[in-house]
Design brief:
- By secondary structure, the protein is an alpha+beta fold.
- It has 7 helices and 11 strands.
- The strands form 2 sheets. It has a 7-stranded mixed β-sheet with strand order 6-7-8-9-10-5-11, with helices on both faces. A 4-stranded mixed β-sheet has the order 1-2-4-3, covered by helices on one side.
- Strand 3 and strand 4 form a beta hairpin.
- The longest helix is centred in the last third of the chain and has 16 residues.
């Protein structure tokens, strides 16, 4: 006899489609499949993202609460404004995507290692080659010291991870991304899962249904900006 109260998580096969988001259990929607470009694109367009440990099968998520940063709600502290105004960092975009992803992968999360495996790294490099994955980089004295990467389809940016090797480096990259996205008419930055660092920058949780309305609008009504991005907005106060 089976326990009808236990969740039945979809097991993906060669078909790149996903089950309805309402079938997720505590945000987990499906298991398995692959990290092909077509599947990743289908996932982001459906409000889904992969997140799993190196020893785990591929897990696909669609949380009931989604962390987003509305562009006009960006919070820049007084001390951070001083950092930006001093010109501590030079911001570049898409000049060393692979290095940014691998640097993010060096981050240890709660002592359990990194979730950015070699398979994840190669998958996002492939999306970068398609012009759909991008890096925003903080440089100091011509050395990469922080940054972030994510995927962009339509006028949405789906943030994946960030790193810092120098105080405020990832914040500077994030602030620049938000200002650049505002200039391009993007929707809110998708931060996926809320944490204190994102909250300090102004991110907040919204219902999945609200997120999907935002997502569909900015996918359907705006073209994707493919290829290498170039910084066009100075990230000062």
């Amino acid at each position: 006899m089976t326990d009808s109260t236990q969740p039945r998580i979809a097991l993906l096969n060669d078909d790149i489609s996903f089950p309805p988001l309402e079938e997720s259990w505590e945000g987990l929607l499906a298991v398995g499949g692959d990290l092909s470009e077509a599947r990743l694109i289908a996932a982001y367009e459906a409000g889904i993202f992969p997140w799993y440990g190196e020893e785990d099968p591929i897990l696909w998520w669609a949380p009931e609460k989604r962390s987003v940063l509305y562009l006009d709600e960006l919070n820049i502290s007084k001390s951070m404004r001083n950092v930006l105004n001093r010109g501590t960092f030079e911001i570049r975009m898409d000049t060393c995507f692979e290095q940014v992803v691998r640097s993010c992968g060096d981050i240890r999360r709660d002592g359990e290692g990194t979730w950015i495996s070699e398979a994840i790294t190669e998958a996002y490099i492939a999306l970068h080659r398609l012009g759909l994955a991008h890096s925003v980089e903080s440089w100091h004295n011509n050395e990469l010291v922080g940054g972030l990467y994510g995927v962009s389809i339509g006028h949405m940016f789906f943030g994946e991870s960030m790193f810092s090797q120098m105080n405020n480096a990832s914040k500077a990259a994030f602030i620049h991304l938000v200002k650049w996205a505002r200039e391009q008419g993007f929707g809110p930055i998708d931060c996926q899962v809320q944490n204190p660092h994102l909250a300090s920058l102004g991110a907040r949780e919204i219902e999945r249904s609200e997120y999907m309305t935002i997502l569909k609008r900015h996918l359907n009504d705006f073209p994707t900006i493919k290829g290498r991005w170039n910084p066009e907005v100075k990230a000062n106060g």
